[in-house]
Amino acid sequence: MSTYFCEKDAKNLIQLNKKLISYHNNNNKANSAKLCKESPKEQMDHSNMNRSELLQKCSSMGIKNCSSKNKSELIALINAKQTSHESVSTNNTSTDTTERKYTFIEVCSGGGGLSSGLIKSGFTPVLLNDIDGDCCKTLKRNHANANVVCGSMDKIDYSQYVNKIDLLTGGVPCQSFSQAGLRKGLDDPRGDLMMKFIEILNIINPKTFMIENVKGLITHDEGNTIKKIIEELNKNDLYNVSYKCLDASKYDVPQKRERVFIVGVLKSLNRNFNFPVESDTKKVLKDVLYNVPTSNGAKYSEEKKELFKLIPQGGCWVNLSETLQKQYLGNSYNSGGGKRGILYRLSMEKPSLTLLCTPSQKQTERCHPLEERPLTVREYARIQTFDDSYEFIGSLNSQYKQIGNAVPVELAKSMGKSILEVL
Ligand SMILES: C[S@@+](CC[C@H](N)C(=O)[O-])C[C@H]1O[C@@H](n2cnc3c(N)ncnc32)[C@H](O)[C@@H]1O
Fold first, then answer.
1. Nearest to residue 209, comparing CAs of 193, 197, 195?
2. How large a percentage of the chain has pLDDT more than 90?
3. 107 alpha carbon – ligand 1 mean position (Å)
4. What is the number of structural domains in the chain?
5. Whole-prediction pTM value?
């Protein structure tokens, strides 16, 4: 008899469970994501989350090696972690609540795109550095607890950090490798900063390092420059070094922006580094260009405004009449190349083209999709995925430069999470 009741109870429970699951499946994603956070029993159903969401949750729970797992393995790991967490908190047996701090030093921090993303991923800055006064003020304003050292990176005394740091990073200046720049490479004083970074690396001996640079670094001098840098990094045979060019638009950033990341992990850690997995979805401008806080912005001349009135979203100078094209381009009308950056109007339905240090130049326009004007400072910051609360100090030009130079915060966060997995 009692067996009969148990079976019946079990059947009822299964049916109730099925109803609950189908209720959650019929609700929208946001709703189920919210439920996942709030109710311990409902936390067990992660089947509505896509792999990218699961990866994020997995990493944020401090689970190691998330990126190598498939969807069902991720769900199993998350559930196991939640169960153990719940049982610890219900039994109240947890004794050690001290969280391990993962520290980083960043040189050439600029306005703080890379550092903001690393902080969001779980790292703590112990030293941020830049040679530019405005950048230092911006860093101090937004990272009140960090030690911001203003000056050249090679003039800092790093002795107190030897063997104590989890990550040394820096986006050492890139003009000498960029496609648009002089491409003098390591012989240029700015390229030489790359060698200075390696000297600092050899002094500090951090557990990991990450160098960020422009895509042109890979092809510079037919690949010899990157080869030389990797050789230098491998000289002491201490680190496993790998590099990859990542497009920010594949990491929740509404902007096409390709950057090279060189990552090294101490061989003694015996861990494999995996670059972050690309997101399943792509962000476009309509996802971020709404309710943007008011801010200053550059202006167009009346002549340029009239031209942009003739150009649709995603269009450029080619949308003008031949007469206007010749009038605007002058001698460059007959020069080769697509010149698509000229009089380019962004599209709400696409990611932005790469934002530059200035929002408006004759050869590189990124006109607002719906209005005849350049993007404002806060729109620039949104596209670079800075929080609206992140403040930039300095003149209008300086603010645009700090934002245009930055590693998009979300891309930096993805890199930070991948590095944390080996620590
Ligand atoms: C590409 S930006 C870095 C952007 C930064 N990674 C971010 O995400 O915001 C390069 C920075 O290097 C700084 N810089 C140039 N030479 C330097 C030096 N010798 N020491 C420290 N910083 C330097 C520049 O002022 C500039 O802000």
1. 197
2. 65
3. 7
4. 3
5. 0.77
